[in-house]
């Protein structure tokens, strides 16, 4: 770890620890069920000071550092009705507030999806949505992509280990990715889902098929929105994890707020590093000493795959003011450093090429609710971000997978991944999001959401090697999405409806790119404007206290990217006639509480989905040049189900499965030629996958420790690289079945303030692939310690 | 009662899950036996262009073949039928190998040579039954060549020679053809960014040492040769003819006509008394590259209909933006006769071949299906041959015997 980084990480931890170190005693009590059992993880919040605590397994809590005064105390738990208590703390006394809560729901806790009131509210909306309350998961050494992998309908396909590129699909289509409603790309790679720590996340929203109006992204398959910890309350969360392949992850996040002045100071920082030196099995090595030269296979370790990501940010401002519920200005920086071990294929091994990125941003967050007689809510967010990229590929050496140099390339211009280059690019992003909600009546509201962003990119190769084709270039890309939505509840809130329209517009320009003109290529500046109007409709209905049903539909689009429209001026030719990808999405789902006994809780959720998409954008298979075209029609249909069981608040089991058909929907090719693959699963697309998780909570062992052993299983069925009906079955290439098992154990202290977790992932050391011939890590061990005060 | 129904529903779901859980990709179902007497390989692409398959067939003149009976191979930049002894050779890139595929008891990869990762094999010349000389890579002005023994799969020799290249331009190989004691090597010196080529260029190599002896150029056309497929040929009197291709994926020069140029037998310069301007003979359209010499100074060649070109997929693999015609061109009489076959989609990477019966076989990827047609040079008769089902295009046609 670089010295500056060490200094910065530990300084941050110290500074953010200050409010925690100044604790005193004040309010305490027990939170219990109606039959007198202690309730674990109840949240007790002093409204006026934002102080709070979480009850332990006996129901006991303690809130230190409360000054004398009259207070409103909110006691809440996901499974029980919330209680609001007015009480006075006198000078020199300790206030005792104990309550018995009424069981109101049978939702799962622990590893479970859902939890908070906000989450519950979202779950009852007409969208087909999973809300993952990640707090119970933060004791484990998980990252966001792995949590998402455990959600039904979601596939995360990763090329390699920590920091490697990944694809996130929802019900067969690529998902749009957001952080707090802003597209994730503008934050820089350090904030990618495989880098941002779970301990800095409040919840994850997974919208399948239909994306609500407040998320402005263009996507066919749905969206994943990460909500970071931003509630205005004193808290501190510190974690550190280490494991195989010299992997280290550290995170600190905290907030200090003063209820009297409204002052708010929050900060977060994280650091991830790994050698990613996991074993690659059966790699082909060439022996140049034999005549003729020969090959053999060998298990080797990855030797050029170091990954480092880091980020820090701080926000300062005020809360609970007349003019603003929240007004925060922020500043931050982040970056990544990575060695490149492969391109998109497993061969050749790359031994020297590297990439790095540095990012600085400033932000402004504003929120004011309850204006105009509590009818108008305003939210706004501005982000100005600068990202500098450097990609270095200047080596003439050809490496083998054992790290040796196979030979030195004779070419002066050929690097390891393409032309030799030191490619530098500067990207500036300005993003803004505004949300205005007007509550027409208690049961009806209108929402206007505007999100826009402008990205300018300038690239250059100042150390250009003679003969290379990377040229200085610049491009600009702006996107605006305006959404107008109407939400309504009827019949004692049994029926909820949502309806919205969205307008999308993008402008893109590049100062020089290859152009197709009258059947020949030339070089010219180009620009393009694309627009689209879509909309959606959804209903949810509470059929009984055990069954909730949902139905929704959306006409969605994905606009072409600048690269797809205008090419790169090198080998990708512009095609400004590209149309947006569009899809008609339908969803039908229900959730049911099968058994809601005192000791046994069994719930079942199921959903069906149907998507009909057209004008898929794809690259053509050119050898020296390619372009993007609208080609495919795709039909997606499938079902997913999830079963959850909780026994005696100790044993929690979850199993889910997704079956999806992602089918070629082109009846004809070339106009009138019947398409042989019509109705056949698209190449390289998994069709059946699922998860099984189990954990058991041993309470109050070794002086009030909670010990939780857990087990996870991921299954992905074998699938073809190409079409199923192309070529003979016994000679076809496949991506083999995945059956990955992880075990672990966490131990947490009273109030779960601190925890330790040990885990072994991929315990059977399986050779695992998400993509063709790109091996993922085998067996790995890690531990994590967490310290948390809320 | 409700509880019982729930349990039944749960049981059914678990049963369904278990069934799916243990089912994987299925093996061969309903495929036909492999005809080991096959003399031809159809190289086909799946409808999405992403899957590449080889299909051995015994007869090109009749019948039907279906892609479900083909053999998937690793995607290769270039497949050649250099050897003509039952094999085709693919340049694979995951990992980088020259792979030899043979028809044994099945169609299988029998040998591989590991390669460096900067091989971009292009112009090639069959030296004898076992050896092929080919350009393996071009680096600035340096042309790197190698000789592969296709029987032993050993690189027997390799070397390089240097050509001049102007600032802002890059070289591309066009063709290689033996001419007496020399090899005529056609090449392009095109704009590095747009690919526009202005002048036809040849280099003359010593056919024994492969050293450069001289160069020549001619500005009546541009786009010398067809890079990946051998487009040059020798007529009965020993003259070397080669096409000049000015279309987008070759010379990329709309101001120059396409055509044929000649280097006379044992000469080392382009014959400035001869240039067959094909463009003027084929309604101002353009040669695409695929051709085969029929004998008696006649060539079967593919021509793109420029008036039908649309925007979109410039490489024409996956759509129908390129519509091609087939012509018989008489190099002496300087005439071009269009064959009565449907328009063929694609950018025409595949050469036609001569069959053992003396027929020219060529690909027609028509709007209503993919076919092999034959042309009889003796009678002038054109016939529809084998029909191919299930591919977007028949990409290439290989003769392995």
Characterize the structure shown.
- By secondary structure, chain A is mainly β.
- Chain A has a 22-stranded antiparallel barrel.
- The two termini of chain A are 30 Å apart.
- Mean pLDDT of chain A is 83; it is low at 1-25, 104-116 and 465-470.
- Helix content of chain B is 5%, strand content 46%.
- The model of chain B is unreliable at 1-10, 18-22 and 315-319 (pLDDT under 50).
- Chain B has one helix at residues 2-21; strands at residues 40-45, 52-57, 64-66, 71-73, 76-80, 87-93, 96-103, 107-114, 124-126, 131-139, 142-149, 154-162, 169-179, 182-191, 200-206, 212-218, 233-234, 240-244, 259-263, 276-277, 286-295, 298-304, 323-330, 335-338, 344-345, 353-354, 360-366, 369-375, 382-389, 393-399.
- Chain B has a 5-stranded mixed beta sheet with strand order 3-29-28-27-26, with no helix packed on it.
- The longest helix of chain B is centred in the N-terminal third of the chain and has 20 residues, at 2-21.
- Chain B has 1 helix and 30 strands.
- Chain B is mainly β and 401 residues long.
- In chain B, strand 14 and strand 15 form a beta hairpin.
- At the A-B interface, strand 32, strand 35, strand 37, strand 38 and strand 44 of A face helix 1, strand 8 and strand 12 of B.
Give descriptors for this structure:
A: 790 residues; mainly beta; 22-stranded antiparallel β-barrel; 5 helices; 5% helix; globular; disordered N terminus; B: 401 residues; five-stranded mixed beta sheet; five-stranded antiparallel beta sheet; 30 strands; 46% strand
Sequence of strands across the biggest β-sheet of chain B: 3-29-28-27-26
Which spans of chain B have pLDDT < 50 for at least 5 consecutive residues?
1-10, 18-22, 315-319
Sheet of most strands of chain A: 22 strands, antiparallel, barrel
List unreliable stretches of 5+ residues of chain A. Answer: 1-25, 104-116, 465-470
